[in-house]
Amino acid sequence: MSELDVVVSGLVFHDLVLGLPTAPRPGTEVWATDSAESPGGIANFAVALARLGLRTGLAAVFGADDLGDRVRDRLTHHEGVDLTLSRRLDGWQTPLTVALAYDNDRALVTRGTPPPLSADELITTPPAARAVAAHIGPWPNEWLAKSKAAGSVVFADVGWDPSERWDPQVLDQLQHCDVFLPNAGEAMSYTRTDTPDQALTKLAEKVPLVVVSNGDQGALALDAGTGERIAVPAHQVPAVDSTGAGDVFAAGFIAATLWGLPLAERVRFGALTAAISVTRYGGADAAPTWADLAAWQHDHPEDQSLAALVADHGPGAPIGSATPRDQSGR
Predict the structure, then answer these.
(1) 71 domain residue, yes or no
(2) What is the pTM of this model?
(3) Quick count: other Cβ atoms within 10 Å of Cβ 65?
(4) Is 264 among the domain residues?
(5) At 229, which CATH number?
(6) Which residues lie across from 19 on neighbouring strands?
(7) DSSP 8-state symbol, 14
(8) Do the domain assignments include residue 89?
(9) Which one, of 125, 116, 61, 58, lies nearest residue 87 by Cα?
(10) What does each of the 330 residues of the chain score in pLDDT, given as a tens digit?
(11) Is 199 among the domain residues?
(12) How far apart are CA 110 and CA 204, in angstroms?
């Protein structure tokens, strides 16, 4: 495997998204107004990063089944994601998630079991990558510590806790991370706080840089080293499906970090990528391409910073022309 910009690891799902006019009720039938199928879970990260031109690798387990093969084909042949670190296994089903999108939000129903191989078993030596990213949880992620020691910038996110216990010990893994990118609900649940701002302050005691996305309320960031605090409003867009929006936000932030942008610009770019993604159905499939960003810039000519990004990092720009400012991703 050649050197990559980012390696991500986590659980991959096959997502089926149904756009509904109202929530389903027992004893009734609701006809979906739209639908989409795409890779999901950590694949949202991988696809969003690859569409922004970053050389992206994915370490994940795929079942040797129809859903797994379809997801692998999409990632490799359509999105250009490197799956060298991934494994295809017999006897394990690729997880399936049905996302019910209505009232500008979504509810998720998932069928799946934990993968038979952990990230540490898939990644036995630190990958040659400028950055790594993973969903942390109640499982070991020793590969993150190894990657940090090898010089990669380590980004972490966290997913929904089906037990709803939100064990604070999960946050112990942040000692191996440079940047933590939870959404507001996750941040407040793990820190036992009442507001995203309180959660941000609490998390900054554990990791150098914290970025909390908060849906249509925008995003917050706090650099624990410098004290720089950022609040960015959300773009007002006609949202239809928020599936994967947090992952797309994080991918946009990671890309902007590797381009060496200031903290405020990184948060703004992440917010923009997420805003574009919620205007259509699907998680990974809704992640914006450079053509989508160029179209946004055409419709919003006042956003000169985006125009510069398209010119400097869009199609035709040198790959890897900028590096992180330091190993904390600041």
Answers:
(1) no
(2) 0.90
(3) 17
(4) yes
(5) 3.40.1190.20
(6) 34, 101
(7) E
(8) no
(9) 61
(10) 558 999 999 999 999 999 999 999 999 999 999 998 999 999 999 999 999 999 999 999 999 999 999 999 999 999 999 999 999 999 999 999 999 988 878 889 999 999 999 999 999 999 999 999 999 988 889 999 999 999 999 999 997 787 888 999 999 999 999 999 999 999 999 999 999 999 999 999 999 999 999 988 999 999 999 999 999 998 888 888 888 899 999 999 999 999 999 999 999 999 999 999 999 888 899 999 999 998 888 888 877 667 677 767 767 555 444 443 343 455
(11) yes
(12) 32
From residue 297, how far is each of 77, 292, 301, 328 by CA, in Å?
28, 9, 6, 30
Signed CA dihedral, 64, 70, 76, 77: sign only? positive
Q: Rounded to an integer, what distance in angstroms lies between the CA atom of residue 45 and that of residue 54?
A: 11
User: Which pair of tokens denotes residue 151?
Assistant: 């010089």
Q: Cα–Cα distance between 136 and 180 in angstroms, integer?
A: 10
Number of structural domains in the chain: 1
Please tell me the distance from the alpha carbon of residue 151 to that of residue 130, in angstroms, as a whole number. 7
- Sign of the CA dihedral running 194, 257, 154, 279: positive
